[in-house]
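Dear U.,

For the methods section draft, I wanted the exact inputs and outputs in one place so we can describe them consistently. I've listed the two proteins in the order they'll appear in the manuscript figures. Please don't edit the token lines directly; just add comments below if something needs changing.

First protein:
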Amino acid sequence: IDENLGANSKQKFDFVIKETVEKIDVSAVLGKEKDKDSLEREIIELEEVLFNKTKESKKKIEELVIENAELKSQVEILNKSDDSAKQESNQDEIVGNIEEYDRIVQEKEMLASELGQVKELNDHLLEKERSLNQELAKHRAQSLGLERMCEDFKIQIEELSKKQKKEE
């Protein structure tokens, strides 16, 4: 941990020592109000305070290093989970696109089959129409022939009836 303190931490430590030294009553030392023993006790107390503050600082640094490592690991986990969620989302989208493509291909094949059936039916109906038109033309011709024959019979019957009336 001393290595982790680095130059910046050493500056902070020196600042704490300087601050503590400033707290010593300089006038009392110069005025010889305190004797050597009390000064030594005060120095020992100050060293203990500094030691305790240093110890607390090191402990806080350790806690912060551990917390930082935990946070980094959480960020990595979140990034991985985001990446895996994105991958899952992309895979779901791809699967959905493949299913949609398969459905469209199937529908296209079905429509192509239906189109083939409709074309066959259309060809059959066109052939039937031609056949029926020929039949119709044939029947019209027969009908005209029969009408002429009927007309001729009618005329013949009328002529026969006129002859019979004249003979009577």
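Second protein (the one for the lower panel):
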Amino acid sequence: MKDEISAAADPVLTLNKEIPGYSGYQNRNDLDNSDNQLRRYLSDKLRLATSQFNEKKDQLLSSGRENYREMISNILQSMDAVAESLKNPCYCSQGKIANNRLTQQQIDQLHDHDSKLVEQMLILEDEFTHLPDQFAEHELPDLLAHIYDLIDGFNQSLTEREFIFLGQEDEA
């Protein structure tokens, strides 16, 4: 899927394969539905990733590794912040996208961001799925920093997408 999204000539068709019901933003009537489908998909994936990370958390903190508690806490806080952004986007008013007059350029940017978000989420999900059961002490700082950076990158993409919906894409 990651390669399909990156190489897709039509991101809407590719995203629809991954997210049933997603039809993009070309038609104003599809704005809310496509946005809701994307956010629901990403929220579900994030919830699974958070669960997988929480399952490994005790192992990460075991045998004298308490010094990693802050890093783990920061990761979980970042994941919670992303989950909240997905649940309650700042560009919606009463569950509807407030700005429903998007230019073609904005629509294209949104499709690109949606593709990027799905790709980033699949990478994050893969990282959490393959977290090892045993961690060498010297690997932990880099592993935790990598996970934090992935979540931070996802959050940045999500913020850039929000700016487009708000008509402030130059600020991202």
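Candidate sentences for the figure legend, describing the second protein: The mean pLDDT is 86. The chain has six helices and two strands.

Thanks,
Y.
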